[in-house]
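lol forgot to send this yesterday, sorry. struct tokens for the thing we talked abt
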């Protein structure tokens, strides 16, 4: 039987597991949760959720809510942030890492030296009480929620019981949202944004595919075999990461999508859209792909200048661009699938890239690309390509 003291927490749990579950955005959930606390007369002024994440780039994120602000502040915490003084000297570390079951500091009566520097900041802002409590995820993982108030006298026993009672249910919901975010983030990172959206929408059967007209990008690092033979593995990995950072970030910032890294090569697409009649060509995608290629060449030159200044080996690459039709879909074995593109256009662009070295060019394009490009391109003549019966005409940008 629920006692009078337990009824507020039970009502809050019921809200989390019903209305709260319908909210799929963590900042929106936090705002609704905190507004609900206010409606239940819990005098929260500032609330902080620290959410640890299973993520290759981020250790977690902090969400900070203030009752007098309309938005929730979201701060991403990269790996390594746990070693900073701000974190090491905070109550968050004590709860998350040291297993402390809860901390409370009555700021009205607290004077320097502060046990944690955040307490001094909160008291200066008018806070009278501060509480930090663990939020538990499965497998023993702990995160943390903190509550601060400006009410004279601080939190009551009933307020603390309300927080303590609601946090287990909140933890279940936050873990669900975190895992959903993780799935989406990992799909974006490992298969690309467009493929990730298709997978999350349920398009996961082997053999599902669509005809896609796109600008295809293929770039390859020249002389990589020689570099790999003479450089330590750690330097090779660092070199590849810096090279792909230039190529990949430039492609994505111009609206392209990376499909895969193949050793020291990268395949990407700039889609023109699904279901368009063949004569309909989006020249904007051609413009974006060419702009990305020129920016990538410029970015690699800047990176090489920096590497040369440090006495490190520089890099050369070739980029090929082609406009064509491909099959885009889910291909592979029954227990190992890959979203990729296949077709003659893919074979053509990968073989065209080899012409960069033969013609001493940084960039080559196909005739199909050149015909739809607003920038005048220079013909390099008809060139034979391995595996193709007829030579193909290729183009480049003046000076490239």
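and heres what i got for the seq, position by position
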């Amino acid at each position: 039987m629920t006692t009078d003291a337990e009824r507020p927490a039970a009502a809050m749990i019921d809200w989390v597991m019903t209305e709260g579950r319908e909210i799929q955005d963590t900042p929106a959930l936090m705002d609704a949760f905190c507004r609900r606390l206010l409606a239940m007369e819990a005098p929260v002024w500032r609330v902080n959720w620290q959410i640890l994440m299973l993520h290759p780039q981020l250790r977690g994120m902090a969400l900070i809510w203030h009752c007098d602000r309309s938005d929730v502040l979201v701060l991403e915490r990269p790996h390594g942030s746990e070693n900073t003084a701000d974190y090491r000297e905070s109550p968050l570390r004590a709860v998350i890492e040291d297993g402390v079951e809860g901390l409370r500091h009555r700021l009205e009566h607290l004077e320097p030296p502060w046990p944690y520097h955040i307490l001094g900041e909160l008291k200066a802002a008018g806070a009278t009480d501060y509480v930090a409590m663990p939020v538990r995820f499965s497998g023993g993982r702990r995160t943390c929620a903190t509550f601060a108030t400006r009410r004279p006298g601080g939190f009551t026993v009933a307020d603390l019981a309300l927080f303590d009672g609601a946090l287990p249910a909140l933890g279940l919901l936050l873990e669900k949202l975190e895992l959903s975010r993780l799935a989406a983030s990992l799909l974006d990172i490992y298969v690309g944004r467009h493929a990730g959206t298709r997978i999350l929408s349920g398009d996961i059967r082997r053999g599902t595919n669509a005809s896609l007209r796109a600008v295809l990008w293929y770039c390859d690092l020249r002389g990589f075999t020689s570099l790999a033979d003479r450089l330590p593995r750690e330097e090779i990995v660092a070199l590849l990461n810096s090279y792909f950072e230039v190529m990949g970030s430039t492609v994505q910032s111009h609206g392209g999508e990376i499909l895969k890294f193949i050793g020291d090569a990268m395949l990407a697409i700039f889609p023109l859209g699904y279901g368009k009649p063949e004569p309909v060509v989006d020249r904007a995608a051609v413009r974006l792909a060419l702009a990305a290629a020129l920016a990538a060449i410029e970015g690699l030159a800047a990176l090489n200048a920096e590497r040369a200044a440090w006495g490190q080996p520089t890099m050369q690459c070739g980029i090929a661009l082609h406009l064509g039709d491909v099959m885009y879909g889910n291909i592979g074995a029954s227990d190992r699938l890959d979203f990729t593109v296949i077709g003659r256009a893919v074979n053509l662009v990968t073989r065209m890239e080899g012409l960069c070295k033969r013609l001493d060019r940084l960039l080559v394009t196909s005739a199909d690309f050149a015909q739809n490009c607003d920038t005048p391109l220079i013909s390099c003549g008809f060139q034979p390509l391995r595996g193709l019966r007829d030579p193909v005409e290729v183009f480049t940008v003046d000076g490239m």
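The mean pLDDT is 85. anyway ping me if u want another try
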